[in-house]
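Predict structure. Chain length: 490.
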Amino acid sequence: MATLAGVSEDGDDHEPTTQVATMDDVARSTLKRISTYSMQGGAGQRKMSLASASGEERDLAGIRKTSIRRISTTLSLSEAEVSQALGTMRPAKMVQRKLSTQKQDATKLRDMVLLPAISLESVVGTLQQRYMEDIIYTYIGNVVVSVNPYKQLKIYDEATINSYRGANMFDLNLPPHIFSVTDAAYSDMQFRRRSQVVVISGESGAGKTEASKKIMQYIAAVSGGGQAGTAIKEKLLTTNPVLEAFGNAKTIRNDNSSRFGKYMNIDFDYHGYPAGGTITTYLLEKARVTQQSNDERNFHIFYQLCASGELKELGLPSDPSQYTYLNQGGVCQVKGIVDKGAWAQVKTALGVLGFGADTIRDMKKILGGLLTLGQPDIQELGTARLVKARELGSAAELLSTTPDRLHAAITNHTIVAMGEPVTSPLDAPQASYSRHTLVKAVYERLFRFLASKMNEHIRTSLDPDTTRCIGVLDIYGFEIFNVNSFEQFC
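Prediction complete.
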Protein backbone atom coordinates (compact mmCIF):
# COMPACT_ATOMS: atom_id res chain seq x y z
CA MET A 1 0.00 0.00 0.00
CA ALA A 2 1.46 3.33 -1.04
CA THR A 3 1.18 6.85 0.28
CA LEU A 4 1.67 9.96 -1.84
CA ALA A 5 3.11 13.10 -0.29
CA GLY A 6 3.78 16.24 -2.31
CA VAL A 7 4.56 19.88 -1.72
CA SER A 8 2.66 22.85 -3.07
CA GLU A 9 3.09 26.55 -2.53
CA ASP A 10 0.44 28.92 -1.23
CA GLY A 11 2.07 32.29 -1.79
CA ASP A 12 0.53 35.46 -3.04
CA ASP A 13 2.49 35.51 -6.30
CA HIS A 14 1.70 31.91 -7.26
CA GLU A 15 4.79 31.64 -9.46
CA PRO A 16 6.03 28.15 -10.45
CA THR A 17 8.18 26.71 -7.69
CA THR A 18 10.98 24.18 -7.57
CA GLN A 19 11.14 23.07 -3.96
CA VAL A 20 14.89 23.08 -3.26
CA ALA A 21 17.31 24.85 -0.94
CA THR A 22 19.25 27.31 -3.16
CA MET A 23 18.88 28.80 -6.61
CA ASP A 24 22.28 27.43 -7.72
CA ASP A 25 21.05 23.96 -6.83
CA VAL A 26 17.87 24.67 -8.78
CA ALA A 27 19.88 25.37 -11.91
CA ARG A 28 22.05 22.27 -11.64
CA SER A 29 19.44 19.73 -10.58
CA THR A 30 16.62 20.95 -12.81
CA LEU A 31 18.72 21.18 -15.94
CA LYS A 32 20.06 17.71 -15.22
CA ARG A 33 16.54 16.29 -14.94
CA ILE A 34 15.24 18.09 -18.00
CA SER A 35 18.20 16.87 -20.04
CA THR A 36 16.73 13.39 -19.76
CA TYR A 37 14.03 14.49 -22.15
CA SER A 38 16.41 16.28 -24.52
CA MET A 39 16.70 14.61 -27.94
CA GLN A 40 18.55 15.79 -31.01
CA GLY A 41 17.47 15.94 -34.63
CA GLY A 42 14.11 14.39 -35.38
CA ALA A 43 14.00 12.55 -32.04
CA GLY A 44 11.44 15.04 -30.81
CA GLN A 45 8.82 13.16 -32.78
CA ARG A 46 9.23 10.09 -30.58
CA LYS A 47 6.61 9.49 -27.93
CA MET A 48 6.69 8.22 -24.37
CA SER A 49 3.61 6.58 -22.89
CA LEU A 50 2.44 8.25 -19.69
CA ALA A 51 -0.07 6.59 -17.40
CA SER A 52 -3.10 8.85 -16.97
CA ALA A 53 -6.81 8.64 -16.25
CA SER A 54 -7.59 8.82 -19.96
CA GLY A 55 -4.75 6.52 -21.03
CA GLU A 56 -3.66 9.02 -23.72
CA GLU A 57 -0.07 9.34 -24.94
CA ARG A 58 1.65 12.68 -24.65
CA ASP A 59 4.21 13.99 -27.12
CA LEU A 60 7.70 14.11 -25.63
CA ALA A 61 8.45 17.40 -27.36
CA GLY A 62 5.47 18.92 -25.57
CA ILE A 63 6.82 17.79 -22.20
CA ARG A 64 10.20 19.29 -23.05
CA LYS A 65 8.61 22.58 -24.12
CA THR A 66 6.63 22.86 -20.89
CA SER A 67 9.74 22.06 -18.83
CA ILE A 68 11.76 24.72 -20.67
CA ARG A 69 9.05 27.29 -19.93
CA ARG A 70 9.07 26.44 -16.21
CA ILE A 71 12.87 26.52 -15.99
CA SER A 72 13.06 29.87 -17.76
CA THR A 73 10.52 31.33 -15.32
CA THR A 74 12.25 29.93 -12.25
CA LEU A 75 15.79 30.99 -13.29
CA SER A 76 14.80 34.28 -14.98
CA LEU A 77 16.26 33.10 -18.28
CA SER A 78 14.80 33.27 -21.75
CA GLU A 79 13.39 30.10 -23.24
CA ALA A 80 15.99 30.36 -26.03
CA GLU A 81 18.84 30.35 -23.47
CA VAL A 82 17.42 27.30 -21.69
CA SER A 83 16.83 25.50 -24.98
CA GLN A 84 20.39 26.21 -26.09
CA ALA A 85 21.74 24.89 -22.79
CA LEU A 86 19.74 21.72 -23.19
CA GLY A 87 21.04 21.29 -26.70
CA THR A 88 24.56 20.77 -25.34
CA MET A 89 23.43 17.85 -23.20
CA ARG A 90 24.20 14.26 -24.05
CA PRO A 91 22.43 12.61 -26.99
CA ALA A 92 19.25 10.67 -26.60
CA LYS A 93 20.96 7.32 -27.19
CA MET A 94 23.11 7.81 -24.10
CA VAL A 95 20.04 8.76 -22.09
CA GLN A 96 18.16 5.71 -23.34
CA ARG A 97 21.10 3.46 -22.46
CA LYS A 98 21.09 4.83 -18.93
CA LEU A 99 17.34 4.32 -18.62
CA SER A 100 17.67 0.71 -19.79
CA THR A 101 20.26 0.10 -17.09
CA GLN A 102 17.97 1.62 -14.48
CA LYS A 103 15.15 -0.62 -15.64
CA GLN A 104 17.27 -3.66 -14.88
CA ASP A 105 17.95 -2.47 -11.33
CA ALA A 106 14.92 -0.59 -10.04
CA THR A 107 16.50 -0.19 -6.61
CA LYS A 108 18.76 2.49 -8.10
CA LEU A 109 15.92 4.37 -9.77
CA ARG A 110 15.26 7.32 -7.48
CA ASP A 111 12.69 9.07 -9.67
CA MET A 112 10.05 7.22 -11.69
CA VAL A 113 9.95 10.12 -14.13
CA LEU A 114 13.08 8.44 -15.54
CA LEU A 115 11.30 5.19 -16.37
CA PRO A 116 11.81 4.38 -20.07
CA ALA A 117 8.11 3.55 -20.41
CA ILE A 118 5.65 4.72 -17.80
CA SER A 119 2.83 2.24 -17.27
CA LEU A 120 1.01 0.61 -14.38
CA GLU A 121 3.23 -2.47 -14.68
CA SER A 122 6.51 -0.52 -14.69
CA VAL A 123 5.51 1.69 -11.77
CA VAL A 124 4.26 -1.17 -9.59
CA GLY A 125 7.25 -3.33 -10.55
CA THR A 126 9.68 -0.58 -9.60
CA LEU A 127 8.00 0.01 -6.25
CA GLN A 128 7.93 -3.73 -5.56
CA GLN A 129 11.64 -4.23 -6.27
CA ARG A 130 12.56 -1.30 -4.02
CA TYR A 131 10.16 -2.47 -1.32
CA MET A 132 11.80 -5.91 -1.23
CA GLU A 133 15.08 -4.16 -0.38
CA ASP A 134 13.40 -2.06 2.36
CA ILE A 135 13.62 1.02 0.13
CA ILE A 136 10.14 2.38 0.80
CA TYR A 137 10.46 5.89 -0.70
CA THR A 138 10.55 6.75 -4.41
CA TYR A 139 10.18 10.11 -6.14
CA ILE A 140 7.87 11.14 -8.93
CA GLY A 141 9.24 14.62 -9.48
CA ASN A 142 8.67 16.51 -6.23
CA VAL A 143 6.15 13.90 -5.05
CA VAL A 144 7.35 11.07 -2.85
CA VAL A 145 5.65 7.67 -2.91
CA SER A 146 6.00 5.59 0.25
CA VAL A 147 5.10 1.93 0.63
CA ASN A 148 4.11 0.83 4.13
CA PRO A 149 6.74 -1.69 5.35
CA TYR A 150 4.62 -2.72 8.37
CA LYS A 151 7.77 -2.71 10.48
CA GLN A 152 10.14 -0.22 12.05
CA LEU A 153 13.00 0.97 9.84
CA LYS A 154 16.04 2.79 11.17
CA ILE A 155 15.75 5.72 8.80
CA TYR A 156 14.22 8.35 11.07
CA ASP A 157 16.96 8.94 13.66
CA GLU A 158 18.77 12.18 14.41
CA ALA A 159 21.62 11.41 12.00
CA THR A 160 19.14 10.92 9.15
CA ILE A 161 17.39 14.18 10.01
CA ASN A 162 20.70 16.06 9.95
CA SER A 163 21.64 14.60 6.57
CA TYR A 164 18.49 16.03 4.95
CA ARG A 165 18.62 19.38 6.72
CA GLY A 166 19.01 22.06 4.05
CA ALA A 167 19.90 19.47 1.39
CA ASN A 168 18.84 19.56 -2.24
CA MET A 169 15.80 17.35 -2.77
CA PHE A 170 17.46 15.81 -5.84
CA ASP A 171 20.89 15.29 -4.30
CA LEU A 172 22.04 11.97 -5.74
CA ASN A 173 23.88 11.16 -2.52
CA LEU A 174 20.64 11.11 -0.54
CA PRO A 175 17.94 8.51 -1.17
CA PRO A 176 14.30 9.62 -1.52
CA HIS A 177 12.72 10.32 1.85
CA ILE A 178 9.71 11.99 3.45
CA PHE A 179 12.23 14.22 5.25
CA SER A 180 13.38 15.59 1.90
CA VAL A 181 9.89 16.73 0.93
CA THR A 182 9.44 18.25 4.38
CA ASP A 183 12.75 20.08 4.22
CA ALA A 184 11.88 21.45 0.78
CA ALA A 185 8.63 22.86 2.16
CA TYR A 186 10.29 24.29 5.28
CA SER A 187 13.21 25.83 3.35
CA ASP A 188 10.93 27.47 0.80
CA MET A 189 8.67 28.79 3.55
CA GLN A 190 11.62 30.19 5.48
CA PHE A 191 13.76 31.68 2.71
CA ARG A 192 11.11 32.70 0.18
CA ARG A 193 8.45 33.60 2.74
CA ARG A 194 5.71 31.55 1.10
CA SER A 195 3.26 29.29 2.92
CA GLN A 196 3.36 25.62 1.97
CA VAL A 197 1.10 22.57 2.14
CA VAL A 198 1.99 18.88 2.14
CA VAL A 199 -0.82 16.64 0.90
CA ILE A 200 -0.78 13.01 2.05
CA SER A 201 -3.10 10.65 0.23
CA GLY A 202 -3.56 6.89 -0.04
CA GLU A 203 -5.87 4.01 0.78
CA SER A 204 -6.44 2.73 4.29
CA GLY A 205 -3.33 1.11 5.73
CA ALA A 206 -0.94 2.89 3.38
CA GLY A 207 0.84 4.69 6.22
CA LYS A 208 -0.60 8.20 5.91
CA THR A 209 -0.86 8.82 9.64
CA GLU A 210 2.73 7.71 10.21
CA ALA A 211 3.86 9.93 7.33
CA SER A 212 2.21 12.95 8.93
CA LYS A 213 3.91 12.17 12.23
CA LYS A 214 7.32 11.92 10.51
CA ILE A 215 6.70 15.32 8.95
CA MET A 216 5.95 16.75 12.38
CA GLN A 217 9.04 15.03 13.80
CA TYR A 218 11.29 16.60 11.17
CA ILE A 219 9.84 20.10 11.52
CA ALA A 220 10.19 19.92 15.29
CA ALA A 221 13.84 18.88 14.95
CA VAL A 222 14.99 21.54 12.47
CA SER A 223 12.90 24.59 13.32
CA GLY A 224 14.59 25.74 16.53
CA GLY A 225 12.98 28.51 18.57
CA GLY A 226 14.56 28.16 21.99
CA GLN A 227 12.57 27.35 25.11
CA ALA A 228 9.37 28.97 23.85
CA GLY A 229 9.61 27.15 20.54
CA THR A 230 10.21 23.85 22.34
CA ALA A 231 7.05 24.32 24.41
CA ILE A 232 4.98 25.02 21.30
CA LYS A 233 6.43 22.02 19.46
CA GLU A 234 5.65 19.81 22.45
CA LYS A 235 2.03 20.89 22.35
CA LEU A 236 1.79 20.31 18.60
CA LEU A 237 3.27 16.82 18.92
CA THR A 238 1.07 15.84 21.86
CA THR A 239 -2.07 16.38 19.80
CA ASN A 240 -1.29 13.15 17.94
CA PRO A 241 -2.00 10.59 20.72
CA VAL A 242 -5.25 12.36 21.65
CA LEU A 243 -6.57 12.50 18.10
CA GLU A 244 -5.50 8.91 17.46
CA ALA A 245 -7.29 7.67 20.58
CA PHE A 246 -10.58 9.32 19.66
CA GLY A 247 -10.32 9.08 15.86
CA ASN A 248 -8.40 5.88 15.07
CA ALA A 249 -9.51 2.25 15.17
CA LYS A 250 -8.50 -1.24 14.17
CA THR A 251 -9.76 -2.22 10.73
CA ILE A 252 -9.24 -5.34 8.66
CA ARG A 253 -6.34 -3.57 6.90
CA ASN A 254 -4.73 -1.55 9.63
CA ASP A 255 -4.56 -1.81 13.41
CA ASN A 256 -4.31 1.97 13.77
CA SER A 257 -6.40 3.36 10.93
CA SER A 258 -7.41 7.03 10.99
CA ARG A 259 -11.17 7.21 10.61
CA PHE A 260 -11.26 10.96 10.09
CA GLY A 261 -9.55 13.59 7.96
CA LYS A 262 -7.12 16.04 9.50
CA TYR A 263 -5.54 19.29 8.40
CA MET A 264 -2.89 20.73 10.71
CA ASN A 265 -1.69 24.25 10.09
CA ILE A 266 1.72 24.96 11.68
CA ASP A 267 2.44 28.69 11.97
CA PHE A 268 5.98 30.13 11.97
CA ASP A 269 7.25 33.56 12.90
CA TYR A 270 9.59 35.72 10.82
CA HIS A 271 12.64 33.74 11.98
CA GLY A 272 11.13 30.40 10.99
CA TYR A 273 10.40 29.37 14.59
CA PRO A 274 7.12 27.60 15.42
CA ALA A 275 4.57 30.06 16.75
CA GLY A 276 1.49 27.83 17.05
CA GLY A 277 -1.00 26.03 14.90
CA THR A 278 -4.58 24.96 14.33
CA ILE A 279 -6.22 21.61 13.71
CA THR A 280 -9.21 21.08 11.44
CA THR A 281 -10.95 17.71 11.46
CA TYR A 282 -13.62 16.49 9.09
CA LEU A 283 -15.59 13.40 8.03
CA LEU A 284 -15.33 11.50 11.29
CA GLU A 285 -16.60 7.97 10.70
CA LYS A 286 -19.41 8.20 13.25
CA ALA A 287 -20.96 4.91 12.12
CA ARG A 288 -18.11 3.02 13.79
CA VAL A 289 -19.33 4.05 17.25
CA THR A 290 -22.43 1.87 16.97
CA GLN A 291 -21.41 -0.73 14.41
CA GLN A 292 -18.21 -2.58 13.52
CA SER A 293 -17.56 -5.23 10.88
CA ASN A 294 -16.01 -8.59 11.69
CA ASP A 295 -12.42 -8.41 12.98
CA GLU A 296 -12.64 -4.67 13.56
CA ARG A 297 -12.88 -2.50 16.67
CA ASN A 298 -14.57 0.67 17.78
CA PHE A 299 -12.40 3.75 18.38
CA HIS A 300 -9.34 3.09 20.54
CA ILE A 301 -10.46 5.34 23.40
CA PHE A 302 -13.21 2.95 24.53
CA TYR A 303 -10.82 0.01 24.88
CA GLN A 304 -8.23 2.23 26.56
CA LEU A 305 -10.74 3.23 29.22
CA CYS A 306 -11.71 -0.40 29.78
CA ALA A 307 -8.07 -1.47 30.13
CA SER A 308 -7.29 1.39 32.52
CA GLY A 309 -9.90 0.20 35.03
CA GLU A 310 -11.20 3.75 35.39
CA LEU A 311 -14.68 2.76 34.23
CA LYS A 312 -15.09 1.08 37.60
CA GLU A 313 -15.02 4.54 39.15
CA LEU A 314 -18.22 5.19 37.19
CA GLY A 315 -19.80 1.92 38.34
CA LEU A 316 -19.31 0.27 34.93
CA PRO A 317 -17.68 -3.07 34.01
CA SER A 318 -14.16 -2.98 32.57
CA ASP A 319 -14.56 -5.93 30.24
CA PRO A 320 -15.10 -4.56 26.70
CA SER A 321 -16.69 -7.81 25.56
CA GLN A 322 -19.71 -7.01 27.76
CA TYR A 323 -20.62 -3.93 25.72
CA THR A 324 -22.73 -4.22 22.59
CA TYR A 325 -20.93 -1.30 21.00
CA LEU A 326 -17.50 -2.91 21.55
CA ASN A 327 -17.94 -6.64 20.89
CA GLN A 328 -19.53 -6.72 17.42
CA GLY A 329 -16.23 -7.19 15.58
CA GLY A 330 -15.24 -10.15 17.74
CA VAL A 331 -11.89 -8.61 18.70
CA CYS A 332 -11.34 -6.52 21.81
CA GLN A 333 -7.56 -6.84 22.12
CA VAL A 334 -5.02 -6.27 19.37
CA LYS A 335 -1.51 -7.71 19.32
CA GLY A 336 1.01 -4.91 19.55
CA ILE A 337 -1.42 -2.39 21.05
CA VAL A 338 -1.19 -1.82 24.81
CA ASP A 339 -4.46 -0.04 25.56
CA LYS A 340 -3.65 0.64 29.22
CA GLY A 341 -0.34 2.29 28.36
CA ALA A 342 -1.95 4.25 25.55
CA TRP A 343 -4.52 5.70 27.96
CA ALA A 344 -1.73 6.86 30.29
CA GLN A 345 -0.12 8.62 27.31
CA VAL A 346 -3.45 10.21 26.35
CA LYS A 347 -4.01 11.52 29.89
CA THR A 348 -0.54 13.06 29.93
CA ALA A 349 -1.13 14.68 26.54
CA LEU A 350 -4.48 16.07 27.68
CA GLY A 351 -2.75 17.67 30.66
CA VAL A 352 -0.13 19.30 28.42
CA LEU A 353 -2.92 20.64 26.20
CA GLY A 354 -4.72 22.30 29.10
CA PHE A 355 -7.46 19.80 29.90
CA GLY A 356 -8.18 19.87 33.62
CA ALA A 357 -9.04 16.89 35.82
CA ASP A 358 -12.74 17.83 35.89
CA THR A 359 -12.90 18.06 32.09
CA ILE A 360 -11.21 14.68 31.69
CA ARG A 361 -13.65 13.14 34.16
CA ASP A 362 -16.63 14.62 32.28
CA MET A 363 -15.27 13.16 29.04
CA LYS A 364 -15.02 9.73 30.67
CA LYS A 365 -18.59 10.03 31.88
CA ILE A 366 -19.81 10.82 28.37
CA LEU A 367 -17.94 7.85 26.90
CA GLY A 368 -19.25 5.56 29.64
CA GLY A 369 -22.76 6.87 29.10
CA LEU A 370 -22.62 6.10 25.38
CA LEU A 371 -21.44 2.55 26.04
CA THR A 372 -24.18 2.01 28.59
CA LEU A 373 -26.85 3.43 26.30
CA GLY A 374 -26.16 0.62 23.86
CA GLN A 375 -27.05 -2.03 26.44
CA PRO A 376 -30.86 -1.81 26.91
CA ASP A 377 -33.01 -3.90 24.57
CA ILE A 378 -35.74 -2.18 22.58
CA GLN A 379 -39.00 -4.10 22.46
CA GLU A 380 -42.31 -3.54 20.71
CA LEU A 381 -44.98 -3.07 23.36
CA GLY A 382 -47.59 -1.24 21.35
CA THR A 383 -44.86 1.36 20.83
CA ALA A 384 -41.14 1.02 21.28
CA ARG A 385 -39.87 0.75 24.85
CA LEU A 386 -36.40 0.35 26.30
CA VAL A 387 -36.14 -2.44 28.84
CA LYS A 388 -33.32 -2.98 31.37
CA ALA A 389 -34.21 0.10 33.39
CA ARG A 390 -30.97 -0.08 35.42
CA GLU A 391 -28.77 0.45 32.34
CA LEU A 392 -31.05 3.22 31.10
CA GLY A 393 -30.85 4.97 34.46
CA SER A 394 -27.05 4.62 34.56
CA ALA A 395 -26.71 6.03 31.05
CA ALA A 396 -28.99 8.96 31.92
CA GLU A 397 -26.96 9.77 35.03
CA LEU A 398 -23.65 9.69 33.15
CA LEU A 399 -25.08 11.91 30.41
CA SER A 400 -26.50 14.36 32.98
CA THR A 401 -30.16 13.87 32.16
CA THR A 402 -33.12 11.90 33.51
CA PRO A 403 -34.21 8.38 32.45
CA ASP A 404 -37.62 9.67 31.34
CA ARG A 405 -36.15 12.38 29.10
CA LEU A 406 -33.61 9.98 27.61
CA HIS A 407 -36.30 7.34 26.98
CA ALA A 408 -38.61 9.90 25.36
CA ALA A 409 -35.81 11.22 23.13
CA ILE A 410 -35.12 7.72 21.78
CA THR A 411 -38.66 6.38 21.39
CA ASN A 412 -40.37 9.50 20.03
CA HIS A 413 -40.05 11.66 16.96
CA THR A 414 -40.75 15.38 17.24
CA ILE A 415 -41.26 17.82 14.40
CA VAL A 416 -42.39 21.44 14.33
CA ALA A 417 -45.51 22.04 12.22
CA MET A 418 -47.18 25.46 11.96
CA GLY A 419 -44.90 26.64 14.75
CA GLU A 420 -46.04 23.91 17.13
CA PRO A 421 -44.05 20.78 18.15
CA VAL A 422 -45.75 17.52 17.18
CA THR A 423 -44.54 14.29 18.81
CA SER A 424 -45.25 10.81 17.48
CA PRO A 425 -44.14 7.43 18.91
CA LEU A 426 -41.63 5.21 17.08
CA ASP A 427 -41.73 1.47 16.58
CA ALA A 428 -38.84 -0.72 17.71
CA PRO A 429 -36.69 -0.56 14.53
CA GLN A 430 -37.15 3.20 14.34
CA ALA A 431 -36.26 3.61 18.01
CA SER A 432 -33.14 1.51 17.54
CA TYR A 433 -32.05 3.76 14.68
CA SER A 434 -32.86 6.81 16.80
CA ARG A 435 -30.64 5.55 19.62
CA HIS A 436 -27.72 4.96 17.26
CA THR A 437 -28.17 8.43 15.80
CA LEU A 438 -28.10 9.98 19.26
CA VAL A 439 -24.93 8.09 20.24
CA LYS A 440 -23.14 9.06 17.02
CA ALA A 441 -24.14 12.71 17.36
CA VAL A 442 -22.90 12.94 20.95
CA TYR A 443 -19.57 11.30 20.06
CA GLU A 444 -19.05 13.65 17.13
CA ARG A 445 -19.68 16.65 19.37
CA LEU A 446 -17.16 15.31 21.87
CA PHE A 447 -14.60 14.90 19.08
CA ARG A 448 -15.18 18.46 17.88
CA PHE A 449 -14.88 19.72 21.46
CA LEU A 450 -11.48 18.04 21.71
CA ALA A 451 -10.22 19.73 18.55
CA SER A 452 -11.62 23.10 19.60
CA LYS A 453 -10.08 22.86 23.07
CA MET A 454 -6.70 21.88 21.65
CA ASN A 455 -6.79 24.80 19.22
CA GLU A 456 -7.26 27.19 22.12
CA HIS A 457 -3.90 26.10 23.51
CA ILE A 458 -1.85 25.81 20.30
CA ARG A 459 -3.20 28.75 18.29
CA THR A 460 -0.68 31.55 17.72
CA SER A 461 -1.23 35.04 19.08
CA LEU A 462 0.85 36.66 16.33
CA ASP A 463 -0.60 38.81 13.56
CA PRO A 464 -1.46 36.49 10.63
CA ASP A 465 0.19 38.98 8.25
CA THR A 466 3.55 38.40 9.96
CA THR A 467 3.46 34.60 9.91
CA ARG A 468 3.82 31.88 7.32
CA CYS A 469 2.58 28.32 7.65
CA ILE A 470 3.10 24.74 6.58
CA GLY A 471 -0.14 22.81 6.28
CA VAL A 472 -0.23 19.03 6.51
CA LEU A 473 -3.35 17.48 4.98
CA ASP A 474 -3.91 13.84 5.95
CA ILE A 475 -6.78 12.47 3.86
CA TYR A 476 -7.94 9.21 5.38
CA GLY A 477 -8.72 6.23 3.17
CA PHE A 478 -12.16 4.68 2.87
CA GLU A 479 -12.90 1.00 3.24
CA ILE A 480 -15.81 -1.16 2.12
CA PHE A 481 -17.98 -2.67 4.86
CA ASN A 482 -20.77 -5.22 4.76
CA VAL A 483 -23.13 -2.36 5.57
CA ASN A 484 -22.10 1.07 4.25
CA SER A 485 -23.63 4.29 5.56
CA PHE A 486 -23.54 7.84 4.25
CA GLU A 487 -20.16 8.61 5.88
CA GLN A 488 -18.51 6.07 3.55
CA PHE A 489 -19.58 7.86 0.38
CA CYS A 490 -19.59 11.59 1.17
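Summary: The first strand starts at residue 2 and ends at 9.
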